[in-house]
Amino acid sequence: MACKRGALIVLEGVDKAGKTTQCKKLVQALQQCGRPAEMMRFPDRSTTIGQLISAYLEKKSELEDHTVHLLFSANRWEMVPSMKKKLEQGITLVVDRYAFSGAAFTSAKPGFCLDWCMKPDVGLPKPDLVMFLQLSPSEAALRGQFGEERYETSVFQRAVQQKFEQLMKDPSVNWQVIDASQNIEGVHNNIMDHSLNAINTAQNQLLGEL
Length: 210
Ligand code: DGP
Description:
binds 2'-deoxyguanosine-5'-monophosphate, 5 strands, alpha/beta
C-alpha cells in the first residue's frame, strides 16, 4: 500500500505572535508521537531569490513593490517540488508563513488590492490547515520592541492584521484562529489538537491547490 501523505500545516499571524516558537514545538511534539514532520519557513533566505528578499528586508537594498511581491512568491514556488516530494513521503510540513503573508503584507501597502496580490500564488499546494495566531497590537507591544527590519512598525502591522481578517473570510481555506495571548503550553496544546485532526483528514484527501 502506498504511504499516506503528510499534511501541509501553516502558521500565520502578525509579528510577535509566537509563530516560530510554536512551529518548532509542533514539529518536536509530532515527531515524539511518531509522526514524521519537518519545519519550513518563508521567506527562505537561503536561496538566491531569498538573499535578494533578505537584503530588502534588512534595508540593504531597495526594490520596487510589485517586484518584491513577485520575488516572495517565486521564493515559495521554488520550494514546491521538494514540498510535494516530502508530503508524498508521508512527512507533515509545518510552515512558518505562506502565501497569506504574501497577500496581507503587500496589500497593506498603498495602491495594492488583495485580489492582485493573491494571483502569483494561485496553484501553490493548498494547506490542509492554516492557523492564525491572534494577538492584539497592544498585547504584541507588551512582548517587546519591533526589530529594525522593514515592515516592523505598529502602524503597518495593524494594516496587515486587517488584511489577514479579510483573507480569513475565505471558506475554501481551513482557517483556525488560535488565541496567542495564552501561555506557550496553552497555545501549543490548541495547535497540536488542530494539527492531529488535519493530519488524519489529509491522509484520505488529495493535496489541493490554492
Ligand atoms: P520573518 O522571517 O517571518 O520575520 O518574515 C520576514 C518579514 O517579511 C516579515 O515582516 C513578514 C514579511 N513577509 C513574509 N512573507 C512575505 C511576502 O510574501 N510578501 C511580503 N511583502 N512580505 C512578506
